[in-house]
Amino acid sequence: MDANDTPESQPNPDPSLERMSALADGELDRESTDFLLRRTAGDDGLRRRWDRIHMVRACLQREYPGRVDLVGAVRDAVASEAMEAAPGRGRLPALARYGLGGAMAAGVAALAVIGLGHRVDSVPEPASEPVAGFVSQTTALDRQFSREAVPAGFVAGRDLRPAQSQTPEYRQRLDRYLIQHGQATSASGFVSFTPILTMPRTEEAEEPLSPVVSDD
Amino acid sequence: MSRVVRMAPLLLLALAMPAAAERLEDWLVRMDHAMSSMSYRGSLISLRSGRIDTLRVVHRAGEDGIRERIYTLDGPERELLRNRDRVRFVFSDRESLVVDKPFPSRLLPRIPIEAILGEESMYRVAAGGQERVAGRTARRIEILPRDEFRYGRSLSLDVETGMLLRSVLLDQSGRAVEMLSFVDIEIDASIDDEALRSALREPAGEVNYRDVEPGAGTVPTAGAPNWLPATLPPGFRLSSVGHTRDEQGRLVEHLLFSDGLACVSIWIEPAAGPPSLPTVESLGAVHVFLGQSEDLRVTVVGEVPPETVRLIGQRMRRAAAVDAREPLPEPTP
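The joint structure predicted for all components is written out below.
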């Protein structure tokens, strides 16, 4: 038996990676979570690992919204490897390289698809829309990196109103702000105060007029 | 000689351009003066969001400062009474709301002419034609926005006095968003105290926002801001900062941003409940952004398009430390 095969000589798994995996599974204690957050915040490599962990998890949970093109990805990787080969080493003709890459990619893709339990779906992707980096359930670590994301409430066309918008307290606060805004801008009274006077209020909603039915 | 003749139109144009600008400036100055120094009363209509409202305005400018009464002529009874900086909003049979100007804001001119006519202005100003408004001859001034983050205005000014007779809010394409127009007006009217008194029955109660309590540690202070929006539309600058305390004694910060014509207020205060999704409410052309994170509640108010209040309110940062950003709020799962 080769000495290199002994358990002692195998490379130790990266403890950070293990902790990340534990965090993604919700199994990391608070102290270790805090430590990992601090460390990952300043380490691009760890952040990329976190991305990958989540992408895999998202794929497994059928949450990844992006295009999963393993064939294309492996083909590109093979092409890239070949292009970077040292001079003097034999190169395959471009067509053969393309075909070999495709064959390898197809094999890997087949294994991957089987391994993922047939969870890779073909998701149409808008040409210009960016793909979200984190799509599975958020954790404390996610929030550290998703601060640039546009809040979910700002989706165009959605009318999201908090429940308190219908309360008298909320309306009173809004009235106060509108009046204070008019005072602060020193704008002409009737121009800035008309919206306050004419604002529709649910508590003052009048009964709708009943349609008049005429026999004529 | 022939060269002089050829150049004459250009010379005339060059001479005419500053003159035209001066005339526009004169009109805006006259309007500013008329609205702050004249007494008037009249009826006006408001057209916005597909609804028409009719209001009555009584405005007196005297030695005791500005006193004003604006009340609705249709729909539910509401009145707004202004006595200098004190504004009282009265409903029939309901609690009235009193707001004493709590923030020592630096006063903005009503129409800051330099900002509108300057080279870096976010607006294009043009003189329009003459028209009749409320039975009077008016001159139209067009102030058009250069981008989508602000509205422009078409102002119809009384030729005789400079009084604003009609104000139409315009979007970037020149389409009317909202209109406020007198249908009758008496300028330089003699207005007695009785005309400025509310005609509504005594309200059920009164909620008073007179925050100024000298000696109680609640006097508003102006100074450097603690918070600033991380993103601002072009042309908007900080005009004033005010600090006060709410009913629970917690610090409330008010920021006023202006591009010379449009103004946006921001209130930053401690959160008063669980985080909620940010929303933008529309009150005609006035838009209100409401956002609440775990720590902060941010409210942005302005007569600007919804994109503007959303852009300003969705992310605040500490003024002292640029990197300490506080997104508002986190999306709730």
